[in-house]
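Hey, quick one: can you model this chain's 3D structure?
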Amino acid sequence: RTTMKSLRFISAEAFVSNAEFARRNLGAVAHDLFPLLFKASYLLEQGEVIHDLVENWPLFDFNMGKLLGATLDCQEDLSHRTCSVCLESCLTGLRDYVLNQSSPYMKKLKVVDLTGIKDVEVQFCKCKKTMGRWARTQLLSKLCSELLVYLQQAQCNPGTFEISINVLIDLFVTERNYELVVQALLKKCSCPLKICCVAFRSDNLTLQKFFYIIKLTDPSLLRKLEIVHNVHLEMEHLEILFNSIHFPLLMSLTLPARTFNVRRFTATDEQMLSNIGEKMGEMTQLAELSMSFSILTGRIQKLLSPLKTPLKMLDVSNCSLNHADMAYLANSFHANHLEALDLSGHDIPELYPSTFFKLLSHCSSVLRSLTLEDCNIQDTHVNMLILGLSPCQKLQELKFIGNPLSSQALRHFFTFLCELPMLKNVEFPVPRDCYPIGITYPIDDASLCRFDHQKYERVAEELNLILLQANREDVKASTPLFGSYDAAVQETNNELGAYLIKSFKETLEKFTTSFNKMS
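Sure thing. Here's the predicted structure for all 519 residues.
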């Protein structure tokens, strides 16, 4: 892959390509060249040079997203390279910036922003070893704790204690790194490197630990909160969270599966839901809301109507929405602003076809991502879907896995998809005619892989040929049977698996004990 580089950048690459030479001559480099040298070092994975550049950083701020993003000197965006060598060198360089008393540069650094790093599936770095969000959280917390211990034991320059650098980071906390992160947050006031949590994700945590750590993060700064796997947060806990903690800057909220279940609602629960809606209404920045796998039948209006600002992203997949919910969404002020929408797990053609197309028409001018997995979309519905999607000229991503569509219908649909100018990513189902006759939808996990793989490959080739003939090589078409790539799950899947096995074992033991008592 060739990218445009200026003569300045080519010179910077030449300078840093000899690590020993570059490190020896760093003192003679002009301040304004440090960002250029940093990106060149990152591109060439020169860990030692990266470390020394950060250790001697002469500027007021250090913003990873801006430093690695596309620039006039080098158009390639490196912010999605989570190269372990580069990131570890960067963070240890930051620690040594505080400790280095002989640096020729005056210490001006006030803000380090690590939030611009993007975790993606395919890495282009040579070492092929990534440092994901969880590992970055782990390493920064460890370095902060080690730094404090060192400062307390060693004879340091008094000026070292006056250094105060805000380190903006997206924290990812699980049971495994919980204690380390808590210690770093508790000692934030004493540490020259001050962790400032901009986004927080928690998996595999008890509620007690979640409530404790979320208060330590300084929720007034939080812009994104994700409570995802194995945090057993139910509606009453969510009400306590919103009543006890204010999130004035929160823009994005993800709640775990089964937070709400209206099937067992009492009058008290109805009031609780209203209170939660009102509290979300006080979050004037809230633009993204994900509450998949909750049962919200008939309650969407109660939850969303108090919001003062329109939502740009809404995930209500597998939430058992009824016609009243869909009618509210189609007619609400959110409809004209939705850039990302997930309605997976709802029988759209059967339950509310016209209301869904009304919602689609309202958000068509801004919609970028649409997910309709397991929605019972059949061959007879494809023409209507084409009609509904035609105005969605900004659509970049379409996911419709798990729908009973034939290979013929898919070919027809792909011919239309070529006409959507911004489309980049399509996730399509295994054609129905690749499965044995009589297969029922939604397909259970046991039957998911029992299809004619050779026939599927032939159909997939035909669909890619349709894209190719329309000069749409820019569109990636795939069938991820077990869901899209999730960087966080990928990074912590061993811990997640162990947690699930432990939970299953505990459930089995309780069942056995109860059974023995009955016997």
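One thing worth noting: Residues 200-486 form a domain with the Leucine-rich repeat, LRR (right-handed beta-alpha superhelix) fold (CATH 3.80.10.10).
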